[in-house]
Specification:
There is one protein chain. The chain is an alpha/beta fold. It has a domain at 16-93 and 132-164 and 247-367: P-loop containing nucleotide triphosphate hydrolases (Rossmann fold, 3-Layer(aba) Sandwich), CATH 3.40.50.300. It is 53% helix and 13% strand. It has 16 helices and 9 strands. The protein has a 9-stranded mixed β-sheet with strand order 3-4-2-5-1-6-7-8-9, sandwiched between helices. Helix 13 (259-274) links the parallel strand 6 and strand 7. Helix 1 (27-40) crosses helix 16 (355-364) and helix 3 (92-103) runs antiparallel to helix 4. The chain is elongated. The two termini are 28 Å apart. Mean pLDDT is 78; it is low at 185-198.
């Protein structure tokens, strides 16, 4: 027997679990704990972290230098039949290169794109590319055979919302006038272009003549090399968006019993609603146990007076902390929809250092 108890968060009918939350609340820990518990319960689980810090892989005992799916050794954990766990840390450049290799219309186009200096800068640095490549990686894992549950650990704070909105933004980009204009700049103008479009083309040409950087020519070559791939990009962006909106996808917001963290969780709910996504649960992490009764200290024997005074002071501080936590939780309950599941996970008292620690956190997860 594995000793793992099904958590309060039901995942049996889920295909994708997405964990969101601000930095410092233990979002990565909750992601790993839920993934591990599902694997111990007999499911084939792949967990992917988009968070640039490699904490999830550290907790699972894996190498942060390896960007492939790495198996987690569960032999000593007593997983049920069929249970297995793999973990991956996103490498956006590698995913983009693989995407080009797979979908370029020809070997010549593939080689031209991979060698292109604009592509080299774009795939490493342009804001939004990493978000979309994370969705590409998710799509790859989702479409590959093997995993029946995928757990996604997103970047902290607002970056997670950019990530979730990446497919829609990619679809907007591919249909934008800028791409159409640049594509046309490589040859004869096609379709109805305004004087502003012509002025933009002239400005780029003048910039090239003044600077000698050949920017317009490089952009023309880049867009020409990508011609024929836009439809494939748009199709996969639409597929990634469909996964996020699938009824079998569950979005969990991870929070802490602190006023600032509660406010951030409420902001997440509103931001998700703005892009048409709904959270299914809020998990409040690191819930402290109740303090001992004050009379336990008063009635204890053999404690020196100085130590007894320090214990009473510490108990008073702990009680004040718990009052603040209760006030934060009351504010959270008042702010979230009544049908949204609210869960608590216990504080271990230390950072999780082993699979056993992660399993203990998952077992502690319970309805608030």
């Amino acid at each position: 027997m594995s000793g793992n108890k099904p958590p309060a968060l039901a995942l049996d009918d889920r295909r994708l679990l997405v964990c969101l939350g601000p930095g410092g609340v233990g979002k990565t820990t909750i992601s790993a704990a839920l993934a591990l518990n599902a694997a111990l319960g007999g499911r084939a689980v792949d967990v992917m972290t988009v968070d640039p810090a490699p904490r999830l892989l550290d907790a699972l005992g894996l190498s942060a230098a390896d960007s492939s799916l790495q198996p987690v050794e569960l032999g000593a954990m007593g997983a049920r039949r069929g249970g297995r766990l793999r973990a991956l840390k996103l490498d956006p450049k590698r995913v983009f290169d693989r995407l080009i290799e797979r979908h370029a219309p020809s070997a010549a186009a593939r080689d031209a794109i991979l060698a292109d200096r604009i592509y080299g800068n774009l795939s490493n640095a342009l804001a939004g590319v990493a978000d979309y490549m994370a969705m590409e990686q998710l799509l790859e894992i989702h479409q590959a055979p093997g995993a029946d549950l995928i757990v996604l650990d997103t970047p902290p704070a607002a970056a997670a919302l950019d990530f979730l909105d990446a497919p829609r933004r990619m679809l907007e980009l591919l249909g934008s006038r800028a791409v159409t204009l640049l594509d046309a700049a490589g040859g004869a103008m096609r379709g109805p272009f305004s004087m502003l479009d012509l002025a933009a083309r002239a400005a780029l040409g003048a910039f090239d003549r003044i600077t000698g950087l050949r920017l317009l020519g490089d952009v023309r070559n880049f867009v020409r090399n990508f011609s024929g791939m836009y439809a494939g990009f748009a199709e996969r962006a639409a597929a990634a968006e469909a996964i996020l909106r699938d009824p079998r996808t569950l979005i969990v917001i991870v929070a802490a019993a602190e006023r600032e963290r509660v406010a951030q969780a409420v902001e997440f709910l509103a931001a998700l609603d703005a892009i048409g996504l709904k959270a299914g649960a809020v998990a409040v992490n690191r819930m402290r146990p109740p303090p001992p009764a004050a009379d336990a200290i008063a009635g204890a024997r053999g404690i020196p007076p100085a130590l007894r005074a320090k214990l009473r002071a510490n108990l008073a501080d702990f009680a004040a902390l718990q009052r603040r936590e209760r006030a934060a939780l009351d504010a959270l309950r008042a702010a979230i929809p009544k049908d949204l599941e609210l869960l608590f996970a216990d504080d271990l008292g230390h950072e999780p250092r082993s699979l056993a620690d992660l399993a203990a956190i998952a077992r502690s997860l319970r309805p608030a």
